[in-house]
Write a structure and sequence with these properties.
- There is one protein chain.
- By secondary structure, this protein is α+β, with helices and mostly antiparallel strands.
- The protein has 4 helices and 4 strands; from the N terminus they run βαααβββα.
- The chain has a 4-stranded mixed β-sheet with strand order 1-4-3-2.
- A hairpin with a 2-residue loop joins strand 3 and strand 4.
- Helix 1 runs antiparallel to helix 2.
- It starts with a strand and ends with a helix.
- The model has no long low-confidence stretch (mean pLDDT 91).
Length: 109
């Protein structure tokens, strides 16, 4: 069974920030390689949605419906609901997830 993938607005925003950072500090080619890897990992989720582990930070908060996969130096945080995969966050793996979530929460309020 193949799942449908929905990339949420928050993750689209993450991709834009990631692109800006990588192209500014590295190169357009580096961004394109990273982006291609991200697309491949997301495509693979369609067939294996439960392959990713629950992020430790979210498991501590009893948010076990979220999972993550790595794509190079990037974390992709997603949620599986029935036959749909919702991509919530795409960030550099070296960033602190708690800080990112706090920033998002404050942006909403």
């Amino acid at each position: 069974m193949n799942f449908k993938v929905v990339i949420l607005e928050s993750a689209e925003h993450d991709l834009k920030e990631l692109k800006d950072y990588i192209t500014k500090n590295f190169s357009v080619e580096t961004w394109q390689n990273s982006y291609d890897k991200i697309k491949t990992v997301i495509r693979n989720l369609k067939a294996f949605p439960y392959a990713g582990p629950i992020p430790e930070e979210l498991e501590k908060l009893n948010l076990s419906q979220y999972r993550q996969v790595l794509s190079g130096m990037n974390r992709i945080i997603y949620e599986v609901r029935q036959d749909v995969i919702y991509i919530h966050i795409i960030i550099d793996a070296r960033r602190d997830l708690k800080s990112v979530l706090t920033k998002r929460l404050l942006r909403i309020i």
